[in-house]
């Protein structure tokens, strides 16, 4: 008996990984940028800290709401497609079998074999076969609004929590430098971790996230300095 061949794929991680990484990066970048901007304007510590906490709470709720609405819309579309496919199977199963066989022919099977495969698959689970091979739906791509919303909110809060903590304990004259430096290190870690988990090059993933984070903080620091100089 030949040994079992095991392959490690990452497509099953796409859903939760996207929400978690997006939330953590957004929380870190937006809150760190907010702190840097307010501190650069010369605001006192309590104003900086209140701004950071408000950014964390508002951002986490916004991420959760946005992710829920987006993924819920995707789920509605999937349900509508399945309902349509269910009706078509009920009213014209032979045409649906021929449609499925045509898909397999396009993928390289002979017409006779494609017809045989479509018949056997539809006998076992007609709707599942059409959902998978005609509509491209699977357990990996199924929309889960609540899961996505919760993951986004928690990830955002986790990312934003670090600059909030630093805002409370770092000397005010060093706050901007400490926030920017630590945020860049964390962004590199998050970008590299996300790339590694998804099977992508670690260095490019880290550099990509660091670039946009540095740009956001630099622009916000500039805006804060300009407004602070006018006060």
SSE topology sketch:
Elements lengths: L13 H27 L4 H47 L1 H14 L4 H23 L11 H25 L5 H23 L4 H29 L1
Helix pairs in contact: 1-2, 1-5, 1-6, 1-7, 2-3, 2-4, 2-5, 3-4, 5-6, 6-7
How much β-strand is present in the residues? under 5%
Mean pLDDT: 80
> What is the structural class?
mainly alpha
User: CA-to-CA gap between the ends?
Assistant: 79 Å
Tally of extended strands?
0
Would you list the SSEs in sequence order as H and E?
Answer: HHHHHHH
Number of domains: 1
The general outline is elongated
Q: What kind of sheet is the major sheet?
A: none
Continuous helix count: 7
- Compute the gyration radius: what is it? 25 Å
Tell me the helix content.
over 70%
């Amino acid at each position: 008996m030949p040994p079992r061949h095991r392959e490690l794929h990452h497509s099953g991680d796409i859903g939760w990984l996207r929400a978690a990484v997006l939330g953590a990066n957004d929380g870190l970048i937006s809150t760190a940028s907010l702190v840097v901007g307010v501190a650069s304007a010369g605001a006192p510590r309590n104003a900086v800290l209140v701004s950071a906490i408000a950014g964390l709470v508002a951002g986490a709720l916004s991420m959760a709401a946005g992710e829920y609405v987006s993924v819920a819309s995707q789920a509605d579309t999937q349900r509508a497609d399945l309902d349509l496919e269910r009706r078509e199977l009920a009213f014209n199963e032979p045409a649906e079998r021929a449609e499925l066989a045509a898909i397999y022919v396009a993928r390289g099977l002979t017409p006779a074999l494609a017809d045989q495969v479509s018949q056997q698959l539809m006998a076992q689970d007609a709707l599942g076969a059409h959902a998978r091979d005609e509509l491209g739906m699977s357990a990996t791509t199924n929309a889960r609004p609540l899961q996505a919303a919760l993951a986004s909110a928690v990830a955002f809060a986790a990312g934003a929590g670090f600059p909030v903590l630093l805002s409370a304990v770092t000397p005010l004259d060093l706050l901007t430098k400490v926030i920017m430096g630590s945020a860049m290190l964390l962004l590199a870690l998050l970008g590299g971790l996300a790339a590694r988990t998804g099977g992508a090059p670690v260095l490019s993933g880290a550099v990509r996230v660091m670039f946009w984070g540095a740009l956001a903080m630099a622009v916000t620091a500039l805006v804060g300095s300009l407004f602070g100089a006018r006060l």
